[in-house]
Amino acid sequence: PAAPDWERVRADFPLLMREVNGKPLVYFDNANTAQKPLSVIGAVDEFYRRYNANVSRAVHALGSEATEAYEGARGKLARFLNVRADELVLCSGTTFAINLVAYSWALPRLKAGDVILVSRMEHHANIVPWQLVAQRTGASIRVAEIAPDGTLDMDALHAAMTPEVKLLALAHVSNVLGTVNPVREICREARRRGIVTVIDGSQAAPHLELDVAAVGCDFYAVTGHKMCGPTGTGALWARRELLQEMPPFLGGGEMIKEVSFDGTVFNDAPHKFEAGTPNIAGFIGLGVAADYLDGLGRNHVAAREQELLAHFTEELQRIDGVRIFGTAPHKAAVVSFLVEGAHAHDLATLLDLQGVAVRSGQHCAHPLLQYYGVAATCRASLAFYNTHEEIEAFMAALKKVRTLLG
Ligand code: PMP
């Protein structure tokens, strides 16, 4: 199918029509969270209006409808990721997904002398759970370094994959630099050496033509709110054998087959890892979001964002005193930058006064900012529903801010 009419697509997102501080909103904080199309908002609304009931419990009609929609959403997300639905654990987001691997897979297996390999560009969600595991098992953390352009140093990474390394935790796409890591090649190498791989796909799922099966990893984590779905939704994909071997992370209703005071028989995966009442409406919305992105054509979404990224980068580079962090040849539409003499928070605050939303700070990636020797950056992150006119408005606002800051 042909590329969609992007002006029409934009009209699916009511929030984008609003004003902020008397100016038309320019929402360039998509790596933080994405806006939601009417179809997603409508699906959540419809659930509560028409068939709100708990899942997998009640035999009444509403219970069946809710269960069907919830399991249907798992199926939609599985199709979106190109994985089997029974290998997909629904959870609150990437943070939960990675912690699930840390507590259920890594904690019972790792021991003193083992090494967990992470990269310099990880989000804290893909660092801190491993530190907690390391503290409790005596394993240690090893860091794969990057080159100044924000790409992984592949020679160093391969050299770091020594026999002590039991697990490699790596972002598919960096939330600060936009770098797209060659995860296929890396996972192939890791597999050859018997290293289990955990890929953080938070920033990849919304923007790449993602095929999780083709990545060749052992675990893949995604978060729903960055891919136009509701907050509090996400998933962990894992190879079936691993899911079967792993003990449950949380205990409660739904994750069991039979409970007595003599012992409990756990449910099969993925339900074994879904204790308690889930975010039913949220997952139904996420299923709709996955279909929405597929409907646009993920090749078209990726191409549109690359076109916006090229325009944005070219214009930004023309502004005096701008330093861009992350210039990898293969990157998503995420641009971290600083303006000479200005603090990132001041830039973001003054941009906000002109209706422009960007994130400033450390982006939950302290070690990465330490590498670049800066306390904070501004980050503009674009999505397919952004426009070339918004890029022009952003540049005008930034020039004004630069003048204001002298
Ligand atoms: N990893 C990366 C690369 C991210 O960008 C984010 C969200 N900023 C996360 C993990 C955490 O996602 P969540 O807060 O939705 O669990």
Task: Note the main attributes of this structure.
single chain, binds 4'-deoxy-4'-aminopyridoxal-5'-phosphate, seven-stranded mixed β-sheet, 406 residues, 14 helices, 17 strands
Question: How would you portray this structure in words?
Answer:
With 406 residues, the chain is α/β, with parallel strands linked by helices. It has 14 helices and 17 strands. The chain has helices at residues 6-10, 38-51, 61-81, 94-109, 128-137, 154-160, 183-192, 212-215, 240-245, 280-296, 298-317, 344-353, 366-372, 388-404; strands spanning 19-20, 23-24, 26-27, 88-91, 115-119, 140-144, 165-171, 196-200, 219-223, 234-238, 256-260, 263-266, 322-325, 334-339, 356-357, 359-361, 377-381. It has a 7-stranded mixed β-sheet with strand order 4-10-9-8-7-5-6, sandwiched between helices. The protein has a 4-stranded antiparallel β-sheet with strand order 13-14-17-16, covered by helices on one side. It has a two-stranded antiparallel ribbon with strand order 1-2. Strand 1 (19-20) and strand 2 form a beta hairpin. Helix 2 (38-51) runs antiparallel to helix 10 (280-296) and helix 3 packs across helix 10. The longest helix is centred in the first third of the chain and has 21 residues, at 61-81. It is globular. The chain starts with 5 loop residues before the first helix and ends with a helix. The relative contact order is 0.17. The mean pLDDT is 97. The protein binds 4'-deoxy-4'-aminopyridoxal-5'-phosphate. 4'-deoxy-4'-aminopyridoxal-5'-phosphate (PMP) is lined by residues 93-95, 123, 125-126, 171, 175, 200, 202-203, 223, 225, 364. Residues 93-95, 123, 125-126, 171, 175, 200, 202-203, 223, 225, 364 line the site of 4'-deoxy-4'-aminopyridoxal-5'-phosphate.
